[in-house]
Design brief:
heterodimer; A: 279 residues; mainly alpha; MetI-like fold; 2 domains; 11 helices; elongated; B: 305 residues; alpha/beta; Rossmann fold; eight-stranded mixed sheet; four-stranded antiparallel sheet; 12 strands; ABC_transporter-like_ATP-bd (chain B); transport (chain B)
Chain lengths: 279, 305
């Protein structure tokens, strides 16, 4: 090569592809090939080694599976056989429902807590006790009270995504610079105008950071919640394929969980950049 | 004698001193400002200048005493009293133009969008900000440009009283000079009443009709009111040739260097603490009749008599 003219990004992309190819090759090579039945000795046949064993599938199988699933993601062939798109759709629907309900409560409440030191001190002990509870610990109580597994899964999402939004909103609102509030005061802005034209934009980056953390946690939790409540969703799909001993589908759905989580995070990352400001 | 446009009457500010007692920043301070007047207040750090400014802006409450503007007692912040803060206090998520329209919209909520924007652009142009630069965010502007935006925002709102809290304190000397001239120009066209805190004697002489001199705190008071009778329009290069320029400057330097300390810390003993008027003619101090405070004639002691 005569001269190094590639940019840093280009070189990083090439390295990424190399790592992927090496990884896939190592994986492929590490899977022992199963002997064909006619090559077995009598003893081996007697020991049952002739029957097909479940093993970690090689990447070529996973890629073939992905191609098959993604070329028809929305098929519906009964309760135990739905396309990956439908399953992910159910999961996203649950996450967004619980998440939006949490935001509708957490952001106004966070505003109140951030603006009022009394409210902050009064509510802080409850927040500190409730926040570290694993969201799945709520599941039995939710199932008993709500009497509906679908709604219980949504409740679990609600309860796990409320805390980062609540705390970040309160923190962001409390930290708005006194000078900017004084600008609002000297311009005779009312409480609502001050909240929407000064405090909200000033605290927006912190609030969106909280929302981004929340959506990440919600996506982590939905998989576990759906494994418990069953029926539909990507979490149920993973568990169902495990029961079917279809490890190819398990690996494929794990990858899909990662891709969707990345896209949700990227959406909030974009939002975060949109409201960011430099002082 | 009629009351001045803005009058501060027997204003006292005390804070708890942290050991169970009280710290008196200033006591029974009384002074007035006429309509259209440009008044600078000079004093060492800790004498309560910023406290006076915050009380006038309505952002703080005095322990006792009243502030009257146009005959009415003022309380709380108001659009009638515009403030230019030392740190500009621009909203960093808004462009320069939006920072100004923010104020104009608050002042004239009935104006249509286009009129608000035209008005804001007009005032930005007055401080030399035109074209694409008005769409920049404060973080993309230099300190001088930010303070220009802040000044435009304040003037565009036509407040009855404009309060400037060390507006040029954070700027380099050259930028400061340019913006001082712009401030003079924009002020000259508006007959705006201005009350300004500064640390810079030359700035005060260039800009003000009157300089209020404060003694050191605690128990500070506005001890003297020095008239700057140098004719306008003023320019940095020509005011030095005025017969009174050096007399005023020396008097002020001596006050801040020596007498602000000597006069410090005297309790008010229930008396109004109104400033003695100091006036210079042909480079000499002359006895001036007290302005709004005829009951307290004081012996003048100008150092360069």
């Amino acid at each position: 090569m005569s001269r190094m003219t590639l940019s840093l990004n280009q070189r990083a992309a090439i390295l990424s592809v190399v790592i992927l190819l090496v990884g896939l090759l190592v994986w492929e090579a590490a899977i022992p090939a199963q002997k064909a039945a006619e090559n077995l000795t009598e003893y081996e046949r007697l020991m049952g080694l002739g029957s097909e064993r479940a093993g970690v599938p090689p990447p070529s199988d996973v890629i073939a599976k992905a191609w098959e699933q993604l070329s028809n993601p929305f098929y519906d062939a009964g309760p135990n056989d739905k396309g990956i798109g439908i399953q992910i759709g159910y999961s996203i629907y649950r996450v967004l429902t619980g998440y939006v309900m949490a935001a509708l409560i957490a952001i106004p409440l966070g505003f109140l807590i951030g603006m009022s030191p009394i409210a902050y001190r009064a509510l802080n002990p409850y927040i500190q006790v409730l926040r570290p509870i694993s969201p799945l610990a709520w599941m039995p109580l939710a199932l008993f009270i709500i009497q509906d597994s679908e709604a219980s899964a949504i409740f679990v999402i609600f309860i796990c995504s409320i805390w980062p939004m609540l705390l970040n909103t309160a923190f962001g609102v409390a930290g708005v610079r006194e000078d900017w509030v004084n600008v609002a005061r000297t311009h005779e802005l009312g409480h609502f105008r001050t909240a929407f034209t000064v405090i909200l934009p000033a605290a927006a980056p912190t609030i969106i950071t909280g929302m981004r953390i929340s959506i990440g946690i919600a996506w982590l939790v939905i998989v576990a919640a759906e494994m418990l409540v069953g029926g539909t969703g990507i979490g149920y799909y993973v568990w169902n394929e495990w029961n079917n001993l279809d490890l190819t589908s398990v690996i494929f759905s794990i990858l899909m969980i990662g891709v969707v989580g990345m896209m949700l995070d990227a959406a909030f990352g974009w939002l975060q950049r949109a409201v960011a400001y430099a002082e | 004698m009629s009351k001045p446009f803005l009058s501060i009457e027997r204003m006292t500010q005390q804070f708890p001193d942290g050991q169970g007692g009280t710290l008196t920043v200033f006591e029974h301070a009384s002074f007035g400002i006429e309509k259209g007047e440009f008044v600078c207040i000079l004093g060492h750090s800790g004498c309560g200048k910023s406290t006076i400014m915050n009380i006038l802006a309505g952002l703080a409450e005095p322990t006792s005493g009243v502030v009257k503007m146009d005959g009415y007692e003022v309380s709380g912040p108001s659009l009638d009293r515009g403030v230019v803060f030392q740190n500009y206090s621009l909203l960093p998520w808004l462009s320069a133009l939006r920072n100004v329209t923010f104020g104009v919209k608050a002042r004239y909520p009935d104006w249509p969008r286009a009129k608000v924007e035209a008005h804001a652009r007009e005032y930005l142009a007055m401080v030399g900000l035109e074209g694409d630069v008005v769409h920049r965010k404060p973080s993309q502007l230099s300190g001088g440009m930010r303070q220009r935006v802040s000044i435009a925002r304040a003037f565009a709102n036509h407040p009855k009283l404009l309060l400037l809290d060390e507006p040029f304190g954070a700027l380099d000397a050259l930028t400061r000079g340019t913006i001082q001239e712009e401030l003079l120009k924009i002020w000259g066209g508006t007959e705006q009443t201005v009350f300004m805190i500064t640390h810079d004697i030359d700035e005060a002489i260039l800009l003000a009709d009157r300089i209020l001199l404060m003694t050191n705190g605690p128990q500070a008071r506005v001890a003297e009111s020095v008239e700057i009778n140098i004719p306008r329009p003023r320019e940095r290069t020509t005011i030095v040739e005025d017969a009174n320029y050096y007399a005023i400057r020396n008097h002020t330097v001596q006050f801040l260097g020596r007498r602000s300390k000597e006069l410090a810390g005297r309790p008010a003993e229930g008396l109004d603490q109104s400033p003695a008027t100091v006036r210079f003619e042909n480079g000499h101090a002359v006895a001036a009749p007290a302005r709004a405070e005829p009951e307290s004639p004081r012996r003048l002691r100008a150092v360069n008599e």
